[in-house]
Amino acid sequence: MLEIFIQQTQAMRRHVEMLDALFKSATEGIIVVDSWGAIQLVNPKAEELFGYDEDELIGKKIEILIPQRYARNHVDHRMNYSQHPKARNMGSNLDLNAKRKDNSEFPVEISLSPFATSDGEYIVSFIIDISLRKKQEEALLEAHRQIQTLNADLEERVQQRTRELAQALEEIEQSKQEVMRALEKERQLNDMKTKFVTIASHEFRTPLATILSSASLIGRYTHTEEDEKRQKHVQRIKSTVTNLTEILNDFLSLGKLEEGQIRNVPIVFPVTDFCKELVDELKSVCKENQQIIYTHEGDSEVCIDRHLLKNVLINLLSNASKYSDAGKQIFLRSSKKEKTVRFEVQDQGIGIPEQDQAYVFDRFFRAHNSGTIQGTGLGLNIVKKYIQLMQGEIRLTSQLNQGTTVSLDLPNC
Questions:
Q1: How confident is the model at residue 7, as a pLDDT?
Q2: Helix axis angle, 131-218 relative to 227-258, nearest 10°?
């Protein structure tokens, strides 16, 4: 029996020595507290972590090692745990801090395990200083934030560069379009110059030849009884000069419009008096027995650019006379409404072919049935530009061999 007791005693001593060595050499802080939270055992690692000597902690409440702001709540948690003790990690998913002797704090991980002896119930705490891990985590988080910042900055730079490239492409496209428009305008200008030379050569050659011929013939009529023949050629010269003047006026008006020299300057005037004077003035250009019949509806006072209106109506009435036979009537109508003034010029002339009507306002365009009737193809183009300048609208309807009606709607200022 004695030998067995000695063997058991030796085995127990070895176990105690092993447990003591394990306790003292553990790399984790180990603190044992009783059911009342009083510290009973502290291993060297715990002394190192908290900066206390063992005798400074034995018998003290565990809250001495907890930051003051958490100590009161910890008492409640400790008492609740002592009623239902079980092995677990403390403060799962929470950041835990412990307090050293110098009141400095450090992050920790703590696991709790309850056990019982003949003396009572105890709780052993295993404490790990995770300061290095926290620093590494913070470094990783900072690196992640920097990467996100760099990514955001890179993305912004890419977007900015994309915007700059898009803007550059847009500017290139705009420049390309401007160049194309300039080339097209240059082409149109060259076409216009060519057409101008062609028209001028044609339109001026015949009238000048007529003037030269009539002037030569007048020189031969020296006797009084030949006065009728002389007056006939004088009239031919006057008519031809008038035609040449109209051609030159068309070119001059077109040039001024292109250069922006013409402005819309509305004034108040009685439209009936204006139109009657215009009809009297145009009697001399009408063919034999042609008559311009004028009618008006509404109040006579209007507010329109008088000069531009005169140019428009002269052009339209001259066309009506030119493209109508002798003896045909021409109608000029005006009517005033609240905000607009309407004018209509209607003739009983040759009309415009349906396929040509879409182009009558184009520069240098002449209908296929105009034949040998003199004209530059600029009149209606100039009229439309005048109407646009006055912020009005122009419409044309025509039937072949029955006549043409041109309607104008002008704002009454």
A1: 67
A2: 170
